[in-house]
Write a structure and sequence with these properties.
alpha+beta, 12% strand, elongated
């Protein structure tokens, strides 16, 4: 994962925060933050060239509309 990927994650989080969206970072990015590197895998189990970013947002009506 390159610097561009990290900048994209930061940009997404800043945008969600700016609009008051309640969210959590989950999956491989969260695991990596806490010290365990786990690459994204494709459906065949090989390391993916296109990493993903998983997050959860609080599914209330107010938060949904802030997310939109």
């Amino acid at each position: 994962m390159g610097k561009n990927y990290s900048n994209n994650i930061i940009s997404i989080c800043q945008t969600l925060h700016k609009h008051g969206v309640a969210f959590l970072i989950v999956g491989g990015v969260a695991i990596g933050f806490y010290g365990y590197a786990r690459p994204s895998m494709d459906s065949s189990g090989k390391e993916s060239e296109k990493p993903d970013f998983d997050f959860w947002y609080n599914p209330t009506y107010d938060n949904y509309y802030r997310f939109l």
